[in-house]
């Protein structure tokens, strides 16, 4: 029987420990991998490969906003993903849902309510706090949602990339293949794929060639 593994990404170590205990004790997870930044979480997802649940805080290194999770959803379309955050700002909830997460779980929930929320996410349901659910617009089916891949929501700013995304971009600009990037940065191929997806989304492009062209145009000329 395969082991059920979860990934928790939060830069507060004590909260990660408590949440990990809850996942094991109340939801039956066999193992929980902890990460303190978005880059670290992406690398763990790429290394492990078979994760049953991924939880992300919004206030940690590398997390620009809930929209940062869109690349994770693209690379792992069937992975149950939830934001577990101290924020209950409607904008954050809407961005998280637009990015394709399965739930937005407030950190203030008591343990029984937290367990119920995470259990519904693992089961494939969409969880939104009751205090906000009545104000949420209907979630638009992916087939009907407008395609904004080539239209960045805001001006492209390379300084907003995470350190690992900048490393990947530098090698991409030098013409390295995914295999070479993985070797040079000591990353798994799945991890490189996630970082590239995040880069493409950030630059508003669909492929490597367009990413190179877009990034080169933004870099200062020598």
UniProtKB/TrEMBL annotation:
<dbReference type="GO" id="GO:0003677">
    <property type="term" value="F:DNA binding"/>
</dbReference>
<feature type="domain" description="Response regulatory">
    <location>
        <begin position="5"/>
        <end position="122"/>
    </location>
</feature>
<dbReference type="Pfam" id="PF00196">
    <property type="entry name" value="GerE"/>
</dbReference>
<keyword id="KW-0238">DNA-binding</keyword>
<feature type="modified residue" description="4-aspartylphosphate">
    <location>
        <position position="57"/>
    </location>
</feature>
<dbReference type="InterPro" id="IPR036388">
    <property type="entry name" value="WH-like_DNA-bd_sf"/>
</dbReference>
<dbReference type="InterPro" id="IPR058245">
    <property type="entry name" value="NreC/VraR/RcsB-like_REC"/>
</dbReference>
<dbReference type="InterPro" id="IPR011006">
    <property type="entry name" value="CheY-like_superfamily"/>
</dbReference>
<dbReference type="InterPro" id="IPR001789">
    <property type="entry name" value="Sig_transdc_resp-reg_receiver"/>
</dbReference>
<dbReference type="GO" id="GO:0006355">
    <property type="term" value="P:regulation of DNA-templated transcription"/>
</dbReference>
<dbReference type="InterPro" id="IPR051015">
    <property type="entry name" value="EvgA-like"/>
</dbReference>
<dbReference type="InterPro" id="IPR000792">
    <property type="entry name" value="Tscrpt_reg_LuxR_C"/>
</dbReference>
<feature type="region of interest" description="Disordered">
    <location>
        <begin position="136"/>
        <end position="159"/>
    </location>
</feature>
<dbReference type="Pfam" id="PF00072">
    <property type="entry name" value="Response_reg"/>
</dbReference>
<protein>
    <submittedName>
        <fullName>Response regulator transcription factor</fullName>
    </submittedName>
</protein>
<dbReference type="GO" id="GO:0000160">
    <property type="term" value="P:phosphorelay signal transduction system"/>
</dbReference>
<keyword id="KW-0597">Phosphoprotein</keyword>
<dbReference type="InterPro" id="IPR016032">
    <property type="entry name" value="Sig_transdc_resp-reg_C-effctor"/>
</dbReference>
<feature type="domain" description="HTH luxR-type">
    <location>
        <begin position="154"/>
        <end position="219"/>
    </location>
</feature>
């Amino acid at each position: 029987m395969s082991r059920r593994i979860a990934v928790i990404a939060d830069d507060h170590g004590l909260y990660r420990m408590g949440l990990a205990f809850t996942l094991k004790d109340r939801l039956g997870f066999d193992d929980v991998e902890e990460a303190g930044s978005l880059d670290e979480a992406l690398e763990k997802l790429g290394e492990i490969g078979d994760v049953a649940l991924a939880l992300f805080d919004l206030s940690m290194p590398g997390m620009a906003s809930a929209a940062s999770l869109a690349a994770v959803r693209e690379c792992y379309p069937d992975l149950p993903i939830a934001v577990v955050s101290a924020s209950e700002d409607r904008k954050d909830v809407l961005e998280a849902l637009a990015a394709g997460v399965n739930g937005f779980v407030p950190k203030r929930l008591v343990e029984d309510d937290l367990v119920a929320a995470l259990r519904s996410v693992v089961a494939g349901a969409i969880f939104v706090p009751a205090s906000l659910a009545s104000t949420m617009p209907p979630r638009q089916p992916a087939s009907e949602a407008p395609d904004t891949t080539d239209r960045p929501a805001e001006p492209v700013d390379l300084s907003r990339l995470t350190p690992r995304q900048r490393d990947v971009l530098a090698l991409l600009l030098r013409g390295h293949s995914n295999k070479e990037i993985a070797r040079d940065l000591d990353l798994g191929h799945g991890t490189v794929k996630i970082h590239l997806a995040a880069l493409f989304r950030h630059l508003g492009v669909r492929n490597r060639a367009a990413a190179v062209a877009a990034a080169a145009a933004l870099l200062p000329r020598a």
